[in-house]
Amino acid sequence: MPRITSPQNLRFNEAVRLVESSRERRKSGRCVLEGEHLIGVYVDRIGPPETLIVVEDVLAKPGVAALVERVAPGDVLIVSTRMFASITAMPPDIGILGVVQTPTPAVRGPARFCLLVEDIQDPGNVGTILRTAAAAGIAQVWLSKRSAFAWSPKALRAAQGAHFLTTIVEGVDLAGWSAAFRAGGGHVAALVAHRGDDLYATKLEWPLALAIGNEGNGLSAALSAGADYRVTIPMAAGSESLNAAAAAAVALFECVRRQRADSSK
Fold this sequence. Notes:
There is one protein chain. This protein has helices at 10-20, 22-28, 36-45, 62-69, 81-85, 123-135, 153-159, 174-183, 221-225, 244-263, and strands spanning 30-34, 51-55, 76-79, 96-101, 113-118, 140-144, 167-172, 187-191, 197-198, 208-213, 229-232. A 7-stranded parallel β-sheet has the order 7-6-5-10-8-11-9, sandwiched between helices. The protein has a 4-stranded mixed β-sheet with strand order 1-4-2-3, with helices on both faces. The protein has 10 helices and 11 strands. 36% of the residues lie in helices and 20% in strands. The radius of gyration is 21 Å and the shape is elongated. By secondary structure, it is of the alpha/beta class.
């Protein structure tokens, strides 16, 4: 395993560029995973990273040592704490990151239960929504062109490995996708902050795609108007709205509850 002392090392420099630049991540089709847990999920689901960068001081940690053993020695770069701190926003004692190819799944058609994410621009919210979607058993998450990049470091940290537990498709014309989904027998539920039908009292049919928009503007008129249902989470008087990630969690798990109730009949 090579020990790197110069920040001019080509593979080290690649990691720096990927952390710093969304454009570089999109252009190269690569992203950076930080920490044992996230890298471990990737290795279990997909395989070893292209490059594993490890702080020398954490090599003896059992979790880190186990990951290092699963990567070819020539693809593991050993660096000092100071060098590692220059390429990650996380605390240096995290001690490990991996450079990987951004997964590009082949999608043959819509699943029975999908999530549509329209123009949510905060990567932390996108990551939290992905984490909730994976926990709710969502098979596919479709993101609009103006949503934050799902594979940014902040989104990856917030999702805690959920990226590898569901299928993520980015850059989608959601209004067009919704129309095609409905033409094929699917149903779309638009989650709106106000003046929708009560989420808990509305009968939903399957296959189902739940659509959620950003906190400021909500869903676009085209996506909302083309939905089968416009539903609102009932809240106590005086409450204006929920954060988009929180609203997605409430609505997704209400759908899960409905599925379980229907299957038990």
